[in-house]
Write a structure and sequence with these properties.
The protein has 71 residues and is mostly helical. The protein contains 3 helices and no strands.
């Protein structure tokens, strides 16, 4: 069984948190406000897939520059 180390916050963990929050908020907004918020959910999903396949993530770059530890 794989369990992520939760003793400290690193870039990858913050990316997961940010992606999850954005998907929840944009999905809720698409149900309540306007269905076009779904495009934002799709964008975040595509960026998470891109991050998994290529290792490139604009949010991770920004978080690293803000001082969040990489490991």
């Amino acid at each position: 069984m794989y369990k992520l180390n939760t003793e400290n916050w690193n870039v990858v963990r913050v990316v997961y948190l940010g992606g999850g929050l954005i998907v929840l908020v944009s999905s809720s907004l698409s149900l309540v406000v306007d269905v076009r918020w779904s495009y934002f959910t799709v964008f975040v999903g595509l960026m998470l897939i891109n991050f998994a396949l290529t290792g490139y993530c604009p949010l991770a770059i920004i978080l690293a520059k803000l001082g969040i530890p990489k490991n």
